[in-house]
Amino acid sequence: MCFSAVFVFLGILFCALCRCLECPFGCECFAVIRTVKCVSKDLLTAPENIPGYARTVIITGNNIHQIGPSSFTEPENITNIILSNNRLTEMASHTFSSLVNLRFLDLSGNQLALIHPEALSIPGSPLQELNLSQSLYNFTALTDLTTALRWGGLAGLLRLDLSGNKLALLPPGMFSHLPNLQQLFLTNNSLVAVYSGTFSGMNHLEVLDLTHNTFSTFRTDALLELDKLGDIRILLGNNPYTCSCEINEFVAWLNKSRAKVDVDAVRCASPGTLTDARLRGLSIQDIGCVVPVLAEVADLTLQTSYVFLGLVLGLVGMVFLFVLYLNRKGMKKWINEMRDACRDVLEGYHYRYEIDSDPRLGHISADSRRAQRQSGISLSQQLPSDTSVAPTKTQVRQLTISPPVNL
Ligand SMILES: *[C@@H]1O[C@H](CO)[C@@H](O)[C@H](O)[C@H]1NC(C)=O
Ligand SMILES: *[C@@H]1O[C@H](CO)[C@@H](O)[C@H](O)[C@H]1NC(C)=O
Ligand SMILES: *[C@@H]1O[C@H](CO)[C@@H](O)[C@H](O)[C@H]1NC(C)=O
Ligand SMILES: *[C@@H]1O[C@H](CO)[C@@H](O)[C@H](O)[C@H]1NC(C)=O
Ligand SMILES: *[C@@H]1O[C@H](CO)[C@@H](O)[C@H](O)[C@H]1NC(C)=O
């Protein structure tokens, strides 16, 4: 009797312990770190009876097509749910409604085709981070999501990742019901344009990531829309920018924008001559815009000044030649005098050399010298005929001076 009572007691205790340590099929439970993991177990439905202590639930790499309100019932302590890569296609209404403390929801790597308008509604708007990277099946899913964001009351959402969804177009005002959003990731999509109203209603945005899309430029309305976001961090790199004249306004915006832009990654994809050139700092001439009137005027004044310089130089040259012409007689005289002086000096040396070498040949050399001089006259034909015969003053002077030098 006593023994059976003890057994019953132990049995109850064991069962209670069992319930407490219970872990859903296909999952691993870590009570100490309050985490439940159900990784790559080919589960077809979300696990039931997740332990009450769990804060973080990781269900990835399974085959769960549909989740709904019955998927997560009891645990109100869950703050993080990771549901990535589960081939999810459908998210029913109020799926997470019971998770009033849910802050982090990762739905990345799924193929959501059907998102109920109230799929993300949770009383008290606890959600802070939502990862929908590579999880939208097609454009219909995006419109569904837009509705779900509007109806979900996600006033507390701070971070939203919509990267890798092949998005080509963002519905206007898509984020207008996320007033406290701080970080928006739209990288690795196919966006071609930002329109007026695309980012309306976001007054606390700090980071906007538009890298790895298909923007070829940003037009006036897009730039105004980006300006409205203030001096936030805007990532625009790795887009196929076409650096033709139409990109002029975007370059000017990059030149002066208050926003912190990743300007080093904002580069031309075409044309060939500008491939990989940084957009910021490009001039309107670089991108082949028609040279504005002002620059043309500047060019014209430059040309005019060259012509003027040429004229002045020509005039100076002409005046110089004219002066030379007026002084032609004086010049002639001067040239003759110079030539005579030069010749006399040379002859003086010649004479002295002959006298030094052999005094007896003095008169012969004088004769030959006269002959030489006469032949020189016939060549130049400029000296008066009498100078050739009679020795000039300088010659006489040299003849008289040279003997004392030789003494
Ligand atoms: C949630 O956590 C609190 C405190 O850790 C605990 O007292 C409570 O029992 C937990 N809820 C459930 C359903 O286990
Ligand atoms: C969202 O999930 C993807 C894939 O798991 C990851 O690469 C990315 O960093 C996540 N986004 C954020 C903002 O953490
Ligand atoms: C998106 O996929 C769903 C489900 O396959 C389909 O009903 C819908 O027509 C598709 N939408 C578009 C725009 O292709
Ligand atoms: C970009 O998104 C596509 C799907 O749209 C994906 O296959 C690819 O891995 C993503 N690339 C990066 C770098 O995340
Ligand atoms: C951008 O700035 C550079 C100088 O940093 C200037 O030469 C260029 O003309 C500017 N481009 C435009 C389009 O304003």
Describe this structure in words.
By secondary structure, the protein is an alpha/beta fold. The protein has a domain at 327-406. It is built from nine helices and 16 strands. The protein has an eleven-stranded mixed beta sheet, with no helix packed on it. A three-stranded parallel beta sheet has the order 4-6-8. A two-stranded parallel sheet has the order 14-16. Helix 6 (328-357) packs parallel to helix 9. It is rod-shaped, with a radius of gyration of 50 Å. Mean pLDDT is 82; it is low at 8-17 and 376-407. The structure holds 2-acetamido-2-deoxy-beta-D-glucopyranose (5 copies). The chain crosses the membrane at residues 306-326. Residues 1-20 form the signal peptide. It holds the Pfam family LRR_1.
Précis, in short:
Helices cover 38% and strands 12% of the residues. The chain is an alpha/beta fold.
Top keywords for this entry?
Leu-rich_rpt, 38% helix, Trophoblast glycoprotein 1a, 3-stranded parallel sheet, single chain, disordered C terminus, alpha/beta, 12% strand, binds 2-acetamido-2-deoxy-beta-D-glucopyranose, membrane, 407 residues
